[in-house]
Write a structure and sequence with these properties.
This protein has 352 residues and is of the alpha/beta class. It has a single domain (2-214, 252-277, 321-340), classed as Rossmann fold (3-Layer(aba) Sandwich). 43% of the residues lie in helices and 16% in strands. The longest helix has 22 residues, at 121-142. The chain starts with a helix and ends with a helix.
């Protein structure tokens, strides 16, 4: 049943982007090298390629870089055993280049790990920057046509409270004097490297600046608020808000994420960044209340507890993208509402 949920959701997201689906079906052989194939992004991408492979009879081979193929196979045996997938062992910073040739690279390594960012910022920064440069070198050596860097909205730094939706033209940035900036500064360097490597070569690089997401495979016990709230709901509540509930966030569903990443990989302009996320913004408290209502099995919403009272005359923090560029230039759109996204995620966990 859980696999059926994923297939249904991917079908809905892809069929809402029929031009992209038609392009992929007529693209010819696709030889893709994927980093970051074992986390939330990676699992959704593998599910997406599995759906395309089956539905379109796609001529596809997918090499997935992983530090521990055995651990990944134990965690996700069905994904590891897909007929077009090859698990390739190595660290993104220094792996030995495979002998195979590739047409595309999708570089999604390095999750937004709060724990790693605070406990070992050197490792976080080096993994992003050295890893990106190493994968770019692979692309140049193999004559790759298209390279997608999965970056982050963190490159904008703190979003001004009066700016409701941050666009790609915003020239803000993280605090370079803060220890917590390892992840965001690393992503900024990675974007710069991607542009540098594309200039003297035939490899076209494009960038996806990703924001916040919800769906199956998202951790339910880390620093992702929506994941924690869904974990609380599955445990019977209450839904616990750790702060005052005033920060604004928005969430894109996993199957939409797959389509958006492929859209940027295939159609994104050379050296151009695209925000990837939802512009349907709401306060964290409202998010918790939405999860409580959707997650209720008895018809009565689960209880919501808030740890701190909101400060008066204190503008709320925001982390919400403008998606006008991705919509206007690439035709990408959000298919799943927040309520549907939460509902589908909860159903998947209940049937897993």
């Amino acid at each position: 049943m859980s696999d059926q949920i994923l297939a249904e959701d991917l079908r809905r997201s892809f069929f809402a982007h029929s031009k992209l689906l038609d392009f992929i079906s007529n693209a010819g052989p696709i030889r893709l090298f994927l980093t970051g194939g074992t986390g939330f992004f990676g699992c959704w991408l593998l599910e997406g390629f599995a759906w395309l492979y089956q539905e379109l009879n796609l001529d596809l081979s997918l090499t997935v870089l992983t530090r521990n193929p055995v651990a990944f196979r134990i965690k996700s045996p069905r994904l590891a055993d897909l007929p077009f997938v090859k698990l390739y062992p190595g660290d993104v910073r220094n792996f030995v280049f495979p002998e195979d040739s590739f047409t595309h690279i999708l570089h999604a390594a390095t999750d937004a790990s709060f724990q790693l960012n605070t406990q070992d910022p050197f490792l976080m920064f080096d993994t992003i920057t050295q890893g990106t440069r190493h994968v770019l070198e692979l692309g140049v050596q193999k004559g790759v046509r298209r390279f997608l860097l999965v970056s982050s909205g963190a490159v904008y730094g703190r979003q001004p409270s009066q700016l409701t939706h941050v666009s790609e033209e915003y020239m803000g940035g993280p605090d370079p004097l803060s220890f917590s900036s390892a992840y965001s500064e690393g992503k900024r360097v990675a974007e710069f490297l991607s542009v540098l490597y594309s200039k003297p070569t035939q490899m076209e690089t494009t960038i996806a600046r990703c924001f916040a997401f919800v769906g199956p495979f998202l951790s339910l016990n880390s620093h992702f608020a929506v994941g924690n709230f869904i974990g609380d709901a599955l445990a019977g509540g209450p839904i616990r808000v750790g702060g005052d509930g005033t920060p604004y966030r928005s969430y894109l569903y996993g199957s939409d994420l797959v389509v958006w990443l492929l859209g940027v990989l295939i159609w994104g302009q050379q050296g151009r960044a695209y925000n990837v996320g939802s512009d349907e913004d709401l306060p964290i408290l409202k998010l918790a209340q939405t999860v409580a209502q959707v997650g209720s099995q008895s018809g009565f919403p689960l209880q919501v507890s808030v740890a701190q009272a909101a400060l008066k005359n204190h503008p709320p923090e925001r982390y919400v993208p403008s998606i006008a560029r991705a919509s206007e230039e690439l035709g990408l759109k959000k298919v799943f509402s927040l309520e549907e996204s939460v509902e589908r995620t909860i159903q998947w966990h209940r049937f897993s």
